[in-house]
Hints:
Layout: E1 9-13, H1 17-29, E2 33-37, H2 40-50, E3 54-58, H3 66-76, E4 82-86, H4 91-99, E5 104-107, H5 112-142, H6 150-162, E6 169-172, H7 179-188, E7 197-201, H8 207-215, H9 232-235, E8 239-244, H10 251-263, E9 265-266, E10 275-276, E11 279-285, H11 289-294, H12 300-306, E12 309-312, H13 323-337, E13 344-345, H14 347-355, H15 361-375, E14 380-381, H16 388-391, H17 409-427, H18 432-439, H19 443-453
Parallel strand pairs: 1-2, 1-3, 3-4, 4-5, 6-11, 6-12, 7-8, 8-11, 13-14
Antiparallel strand pairs: 9-10
Amino acid sequence: MKDKPMGGVVLVVDDEKRVRESVRAILEDEGYSVLEADDGESALSKVAEDRPDAVLLDVWMPGIDGIETLKGIRQQDQDLPVIIMSGHGNIETAVSATKLGAYDFLEKPLSLDRLNLVLRNALSQRKLVEENRALRDSFRKGSDLVGHSLAMKEILDQVKIVAPTHASVLITGENGTGKELLAREVHASSHRIQGPFVAVNCAAIPDNLIESELFGYERGAFTGATSRKKGKFDLAHRGTLLLDEIGDMSLATQAKILRVLEDQVFQRVGGNRDVEVDVRIIAATNKDLALEIAEGRFREDLFFRLNVFPFHIPPIRERKEDIMPLLTTFVEEFGNSYSKPDLVFSTEAVRLMTAYQWPGNIRELRNVVERMAILSTGRIIEADLIPESISRGKPAVHDMDMDSKEADYRKAKETFEREFFRRRLERNEWNVSRTSVEVGLERSNLHRKIKQLGLVNPEKGSGNG
């Protein structure tokens, strides 16, 4: 698809050719690009395929009328401005259209001044909604990307250099180090800030579903595909797509990703039509892709396309000077969330938390701070609220005194298993399917083991996937 004109793209839907031609002439004089559809079916197809910025929709048409077409448009895009037109306008029709989310209602014959005003306002509102969404995402997700270490300062300096370009970015680092946050920072600092930021965890989607998730599918592509569905590439058009855990993607899907990177074109599952898209790709992984390439699990040509500008985020144990600013950020966040403003850590609490190695990185640190903020009854968060495994600086498997009378084999085995499975689940972001493969245990057996050991995902309350 070519870049959209400054005025935007308007889809005119009317079964009368004369009306469409008249409206086209008016809008093109005002600097808009115009698409046409003569019925509801073709209008829905053009909304899905061509992504217009606004729709002028006639009410009275053969087949699917304007109201039903409006319902279909709303299923595809909740924010797309739809302006209803009718030569038989009445209050009842206008009210019905407004309830379904129509932006405005125009009576035929159209007033040129009224048409231009309504369309201009509709497009301004859509732009404002997109900008607010982007800013909201930026503020909500950007607070964790803080740090005083030399490594983080260098990363943030490099973001300023690469963000304004169209270069692909590859982010590596352990789980929990903030790879998605860095991707959002690149997006927020780029010229695509007004476009969407779409993230997809490639490891969390089964191989047989990953292509339809990324590229969407056509109606009838498989059992249950009753209508066309947009994929992540469609949704990220004119924005940024984060392919998280790309090292877990199948070779077949990698080949299709490579084509999109090279040509900015893809085909939906079950389709044969090329869909052009303008998307910046950011990939992230906790795997050593060089090793994956050597063992035949990752395409070398895809690696070179992704690795135009690489970032590596060190684990938090290698940048201890970032722990204090992170503690400050999180305690302020959760203090406000739980109506406990001005919360601070005691000197001893800071010392113990700074000394800990944080194998779960920032994600683990954030969860611990939230727990302590909830439990705190005063302004100062004391060291006694720190989980024992952290305050002692040792993993929970050593919490049992092996010389005590209680240290029998059964309890020692249970303690070891609890810590072993907890750490594996945390490393896989509590995805049970991935963890079961890693530890060599059937998924159903792992679910039983999680329940037996009383393991709980701190973010969702149980294992997922």
